[in-house]
Structures are given as structure tokens and as C-alpha cells.
Amino acid sequence: MRERLSVALAAAALPLAAALLLAAALLLAAVPAVGYITLVTVPERGDVQLTIYNSEDLTLVQERRTLAFKKGLNRLEFSWAGTKIDPTSVQFRALEAADRLEVLDVTFPPFVKNTLVWHINADRDLSAQAEISYFTSGLSWEADYVAVADEADNAFTLAGHLRVTNGSGEDYANARIRVVVGVVQLLDDIATMADDEAREKAQQRLRGAIRKGELLAERKAIVKEAASEYFLYTIEGTETIPDGWSKRFPAFEQPGVPLTLTHRFDEAKWGADVEKIYTFTNDEASGLGAQPLPNGAVRLFRRRGNALSYVGHQVMPCVPVGDEAELDLGPEPQIQVETTQTDYRKAKLDIRGTRVFGYDETRTVELEITNGTERDTELELTQAFTGDWEITRSDLPYEDQDYRSVTFTVPVPARGTRTLTYTAVTHTGSNAERNE
Amino acid sequence: MKRAAATRTALIAAATVVAAVVVAAIVTLVAPPARARVKLVSLPERATVVLRLDHLTAVLVQEERAVTLQQGLNRLDFSWKRVSIEPGSIQLEPLDRAGRVQVLNVSFPPEENALVWEVDAPRAGPVRVRISYLLKGLRRLVSYRAVANADETALTLRGYLTLQNHSGESFDQVAIEPGYGARFVKKLENGESKQMLSFAAEDVPIEKTLTYDPETFGPRVVMRYRIENTAENKLGSFPLPAGKVRLFIEDTKTGAAFIGEDFAEFTPVGGELELLLGQARDVAVERTIVNVKKIPRLREQDGRIRLYDSDETYRYELQNFRDAPVTLTVVARVNDTWRMVQSSHPFERTDSRTIEFTVELPPKGQTLVLEYQVLRTNLE
After folding, report:
1. Which residue of B has its CA nearest to A1?
2. Most buried among A137, B71, B148, B321, using CB within 10 Å?
3. What is the dihedral of CA B24, B27, B32, B38, to 10 degrees?
4. pLDDT surpassing 60 at residue A191
């Protein structure tokens, strides 16, 4: 309760000294000297909505309160000691009777920290709902996932969570929480992101469900929808997150997401280890595809009879709809690659006068792959080269990975061995035709 | 004026009360104090605990507890002190009435090793839940004891798992699942180390080899045992984890004599494990460079050699002082582009720069001469 809103309505004139005394005595010196005060009210914070961005340390807070205005000049005071509010972002907006209320100015009084005062003119006595919005830092959210693969590594159950952390200095009670996926470009546009319609729809669904008796303390559905370049995830209902706490909500759980297990060998990336990779697609066929999957940590388990065994932990980048995601599960020590250079030859020396200007080197490489696992695999084996190189002979077809590497797909039977042999020529010096 | 003052005072008082309520609410959430041990507050002790070690490095703890839930919203507090738990890994999974009992959310209080689950139950009653988390500070070590028979044709291999528990947590009765070999149920206290026999394989065939490979082992003949991790060789049901191997040989007088130790690399199923026993003192090798001659191919105008071939001859005098013949593998390296001109014995080219001769050495100190000549070309 470190943020305080007070309204001073000025209607009748008061002796200046009395007003000063009143302010000093009753507002703990926080309120500047005012000339005309008849009544002060501290309205309840009716409704608060948090829109949390994780690309920046930024949260849009929208509070709604019903305020009583008197005809004439009204003083509305807002203070926020101990919080991380951006003072330049604080906005007042009348949601009702907007044509009868006029914000004349906003003042940051001298000698008083973390306080501002709006002067609002009302053309008659009225009670109206108003929204006060501002940006604060210190609130953040992150996604994380728990994936449980079946024993055959054919499919997994993917459960997504959202974790909201409140380090803003302010306790938020019964707040609606929305989180935004996407990188904020123009900070001024954030205010237009407020999407009342989506929130209303989610509310109606929840109310409908409660009427039907389907829910007691039902899990909060996390409703997602696109907003321009961004995606909004709304946590249904309201939540209380005190300052310093974080809270994690289940966002979705999708069983039977098909996955492909592949093994890769690429010394430039993983050294001598064979890496184990799960691939899945964020699309409808997988039971997903309704929204991008925000970046977050994935903890992977594998079902083993009744229990789970831990497979690994990895940070997954954001997966757009329709895109494929790769989860790197770490090394598979049961698959080993032994590399042997079986032949080396230096030839085609370009000798002019007494100098050697260039030559070719021919290397034959044998890769023996041992698969100690209980399933057949296709190892994606990448070999890197330098200089002007070409493969002149190979046991197996390969694909160019990039300018200086190729990838072979090597089928290796369960508990078996497979050998791949290729010959590569490197043209050096005057024999080289392509640039490094 | 008087009226106004009274209203304000009342309001400030009301605000104070609201603040207190919020604080009270927080206190209620945090209320269960952190215990010295992992504890689910107001719940019975864990029924079963399993330590799963099937990951190469991580230790997964899975414990089951019977929780008595009220109808509607329940709060389960889980806190720990001086126990190395990875907080992000903690999970709660209802086992009974799956799908009916739901975890609504989990809250993490500030600066405390604790969390609070909000769980919804459709009706009151006991529910089994599984809590799992990754535990740090529980180190594991694999070691082997191998006892070869007297004629060194087979050995008994015993694998041991040692757990060093520095996790801060004590386990009264814990099931340990190493992911291979035997499963154990033990008491494992904090600070305790415990060694357990994971598996024992008898009559595992071995091949004893003698190798002279100065680049790898220095100028000496080394003895090695070769073991294959296959079913035909009484192994092969799981990969052999890396660990130290103490090697013994059966001895009718002392039972078993220690003959050396080596570090076994991780050996997948179907893979091969080579254990170094040490130096063979009764097989001697003397290597001589007989001839290294430059053959100029290209000279500078001042006569300096720009490009040349090298004609090289090497000789090995091999002596076996044992009573029986032995097989010795001599490994030699030849760099660059080369070809064998002549060799006294057949050889195998194991890679582009390695040649191996496998020769039978006659017994009782007889000398066998191995000689080869190579031509290395286009040297700069």
C-alpha cells in the first residue's frame, strides 16, 4: 500500500492557514499547501490490469477507480513512494462523463517526492469511473516448459507455464495479468495495446462455466490472441502477487505432440560427442500451432514405466506458428564416432623455376559409427573443410551444409556399427580456385 | 471543517487496516517456517523416495506422499533449508484421481527456499502426490575390481557405485536407481559416502596384448587387456560407465595379486574397453635408425634444397625372454606422403601415418629383427 491516491475537491473557500494546518496534520506532510479543500476521499482501487512485456523491463499498469467530482476545480493527487513507476508515464483518463471532465494541468509539486497533482474541472457534481495508467519496471514474466517423452521417443506431452515475478515495490492484489510476447519498438504505442474485448471474452467464458457448475477453483485458462505484431497472453480472472513474490501458472498441456529423435555429430559445435536432438513442430497437426511458443527453459523427462527419468534442460528460443523447434538434449554417449584418416597424398605440385606455387592434398577419411542404443538411428554427420576443397568420392550421398561443410545421413542399426568413407581433395596455393 | 477532519482520520485508519490485512495475508502464505529438512507442511512424511541416477550428471529425486486435501482450494507449502535443491525443477504431480485434482499455480516467496502450491480438489480425502526435483551435491563415482584368472584368458569384473552425499539431505530409506545393474534400497545420510556393488560378471573373456608404441606409451612394451562389452562376453546389457579399474590376478598363495590400475573410459554396448596393465619387462625392443637420406628434387640457384624425398630405413631388434612365444604389436609412424619400399614382415596400415607389425616372438631370449624402408616424398 505504498501508492496512494487522494482527491481533494475544491468548492468552498477556506482560510489559508487552516488549510495548511489541515494538510500538515492529516497528510503526513506529503501534500503540498493548498488553498481550497473541503473534502478528501481515498477511493478504492477498483480494478487493476498489468500488461507485462518481457523484451524490456516494462509493465503497463491500468487502474480503474470510481471518483466523485464536485462542480468546479478538483485536485486529484497521486503518489507512489517506494515503487518503480515512471513518473512521466502517469496518465489520467475519464472512462465515463469524459465530456464533462477536463484535465487542466498536471503538476509535480516542489519539495514533495513521488507525487503529482491533476487539476480537473467538472462542469457539475458527478461520479465517474476513471483510469490511471502508468509504466512501472520490476515486473517480469517468463515462460517455461515441462516435456515428458514416451518411452519410444515418438511423442511427448508438452506443458507450458507462465511465471510472473513482482519486484516492482508494489503489491498487486486481484490484478488482471496479461503478458506480451514480442519486441517493443515504439514505447508510445504500448497504451493502444490495451485490449478490453479479449479480457471481456475471457471473463464471459469463466462466468458461463461457473454458472454451469463446471468449475470450482478451476485452473486459470491462459487466453492468447494476436495483437498486431505481438501476442497477448491473458491469465483468466485475477491474481494477487505481493512484492518480491513470483507465481507460476499452467498455460497449456498438450499430450501426444509428435517428435523426431535425431542424432548429430558436428565437431565444430559439440566436439567429439554425438548430440541427441528432439524436433517437433508448432502446428495444428501436433496439437499446437494456436500461438507462438514464447522462449523459455524446457525441462525434459522420459517416461520409464511408472516413473520419469530426467533427460535434460535447455533454453528454447521463441517458436513461431508453423516452425520447427529443436531441443538439444546433450550428448548420447552410447553412439560414438571414430575418425581415421586412412590415406594422405600430396600431389599436382605446381613448380615454376625453383618455387612451388601450389599443390593438391588428397585425404581419405573413414568414420566408424557405433550405435550402442536399442533403436536404429540416422546419424546426421557433419564434416567441415577449409580452403578450396571438394569431395571426390563418398560411400553415401551428402548435402552441402554451407560453404565449408557437408552433412551425411548415416543409418546405423541398433547395437550395430556402420562405416562411412569419403575422399576429399584440397587445392592449395595456385591450384586453389575459390576464395577462403 | 470539523466534519472533514473526522472523515480523513477515519479514512487513514481504514487504509492502515487494509495494509495490515495484506501483510497478514502475506504472513499466512509465508507462515510455515523453513525447516531443516524438506517438508510438506501439515502433511505426513514421504512414503517412498527414489533417487534416479540414469542421467549422466543430474540426480532426480522422486518422492511420494499421501496428502489429505479439503474440498476446494488447498495450499501446500514446501520449504527446505541447507539442501541443494534446484528450485526451478520442483514439480508436484497428483497420482490418484488424475485430472480431478489440479495444481492451479505455484508461488515463490522472496528470499526464501520455499514454494506454495495451490491445489484444487473436487472433494475431500487423501491423495497420493509425487514431488520431484533435481538435487545437487550428491556425487557419484564408479569403480571396478577386475580379477583375471591365472592364465589371463578371462576375468571377473565387479562394478561399484559410490555415492557421496553432500546434498544437505538425509534419506532414511531411499531407493537408488543407477540406471544399470542392481537397484538398492539404503539409508543415506547427509555427509555419508556409500559404496555398493552394482554388478558382477564372471568369466568375461579377455585378450591380453603386448604393444610397442613409443608415441602413445613411451619407449616400452605395454600389456593391455581387451574386453568387449557384448553379450557373448558375459556383458553387453548396459554401457559401462567411466571409472577407475583395479586389476588383480588370481594367485593360489595369496588369493589375488594386485597388478595395476587404469581408468576405464565410458564403453557403450558393443564397444571395446582396453585396460593398461603396465610394462612388460621380459620383452625388449631396441629401435635403430639405419638410414635417413635426402634425395633432392628441386634446388635453388645457390644449390639449397627446395624440395626433396626422404629414403628412410628403420630396424627393431625384438627379444622375448619368456619361456613361451609371445605376439607383439609394433606401432610406427610415417608422416606425409609415403610408400613402403620394402619390409621384412607384413604390416597393416591403420591410418594414413600409422603402420602396425604383428610379429610372433620366439621364446628364451632369441632375437627377431624387423626392418623396413619407406620413401617419403615432396618434402619442403
Report:
1. B19
2. B148
3. 150
4. no
Instruction: Identify which of A410, A412, A405, A411 has the alpha carbon closest to the alpha carbon of residue A382.
Output: A405
Q: b/e map of B162-177 (b: 16 or more CB within 10 Å)?
A: ebbbebbbbbeebebb
Q: Which carries the bigger pLDDT value, residue B24 or residue A338?
A: A338
Is residue B58 less than 8 Å (CB to CB) from chain A?
Answer: yes
Residue of A4, A216, A354 lying closest to B298 (CB–CB):
A354
| Domain edge (last residue) among A331, A355, A373 | A331
Name the residue facing A334 among B62, B111, B269 (closest C-beta).
B269
Which of A7, A245, A371 is the best mutation test for B, with the most CBs of B within 10 A? Answer: A245
Q: How far is A317 from chain B (nearest CA, A)?
A: 18
Beta bridge partners, A300, equal: A147, A312
**CATH number for the domain harbouring residue B293:** 2.60.40.290
Out of A81, A115, A135, a domain closes at: A135
Domain final residue, candidates B116, B135, B154: B135
Torsion sign over Cα B5, B11, B15, B18:
positive
Please give the tally of structural domains in chain A. 4
For range A218-239, the mean pLDDT:
66
Same-domain status, B262 and B153: yes
Strands A355-371, A335-352: pairing is antiparallel
pLDDT for the residue A299: 93
Please check whether residue B19 touches A, CB under 8 A. Answer: yes
Do B249 and B307 belong together in one domain?
no
**Domain termination site, one of B135, B158, B181:** B135
- CATH assignment of the domain containing A395: 2.60.40
Does B349 fall in a domain? yes
Q: Check CB contact of A348 with chain B, cutoff 8 Å.
A: no
Does the pLDDT at position A160 exceed 50? Answer: yes
Domain that includes residue A157, residue range: 139-254
For residue range A239-265, list pLDDT tens digits in order. 889 999 999 988 888 999 999 999 999
- Chain B residues 181-220 with a CB less than 8 Å from chain A: none
Q: Using CA atoms, how far apart are residues A125 and B73, in angstroms rounded to an integer?
A: 44
Residues A315 and A346 in one domain: no
Look at residue A2 and tell me whether its pLDDT is greater than 60: no
Residue A12 confidence class, pLDDT cut points 50, 70, 90: very low
Model's pTM, two decimal places? 0.76
A36 within domain boundaries = yes
Cβ atoms B47, B172 nearer than 8 A = no
Stronger pLDDT, A172 or B161, i.e. the higher one: B161
